Amino acid sequence: MPVSSPSSVWCPHVTVACVVTDGDRYLMVEEEVGGRLAYNQPAGHLDDRESLATAAVRETLEETGWTVELQHLIGIHQWRSTEHGDGVVRFSFAARPLSHDPARPLDKGIRRALWLTREEIAAFGDRLRSPLVLQSIDAWLAGQRLPLTALTSLLDGDRYP
User: Whole-model pTM?
Assistant: First the structure.
């Protein structure tokens, strides 16, 4: 097999997202993306030298002001973004809310955090940031829960398995 040049190496975006529940409501963010309003779970990119679990907790705090505790891995989802055309590998977690800091500034582009039912979320249609929003909620509703120990991190100081 021929060796690829560095410029032809495929490198997907690795992202994390949290399905945070309170009864029948889910924590969502309203954000500006490419000049339009979109709706998503708290989500973002994995930083260098950061575990997936740590990234999920960090992104949720930065985008919503909510501190959460991860409970399960819901799934690993792969798709090609219609926004930028690149491949995305998304790790979706279930989390429970612990505390909220309403005075915390939210990430750039995030307009607000809000709690919505699945029906309200589905009503956004093509204003959802990706099809992974409903896919991860529906997987959670169907009982899909993997232990956090399914992911391991060998990073120094990481408190998650």
Answer: 0.87
Pairing, β 25-33 against β 110-117: antiparallel
| Residue 23 zone, left/alpha/beta (φ > 0; ψ -120 to 50; rest) | left
Contact status, residue 64 vs residue 14, Cβ threshold 8 Å: no
Contact 108/87 with Cβ under 8 angstroms? no
Alpha-carbon torsion, ordered 20, 55, 98, 113, to 10 deg? -50
> In this predicted model, what pLDDT tens digit does every residue of 33-71 receive, in sequence order?
889 999 999 999 999 989 999 999 999 999 999 999 999
The confidence band for 91, taking pLDDT boundaries of 50, 70 and 90, is very high
What distance separates the 2 farthest-apart alpha carbons in the chain? 56
List all residues 6 or more positions away from 150 whose beta carbon is below 8 Å from its beta carbon: 73
In this predicted structure, which of 35-39, 83-87, 134-138, 155-159 has the lowest mean pLDDT? 155-159
Closest listed residue to residue 62, CA positions, set 46, 49, 40, 43: 43
pLDDT the model gives residue 24: 97
Q: Letter for the amino acid at 60?
A: T
Give backbone dihedrals phi and psi of 118, rounded to 5 degrees, phi first: -60, -40
Fold classification of 11-99+107-149 is: Nucleoside Triphosphate Pyrophosphohydrolase (3.90.79)
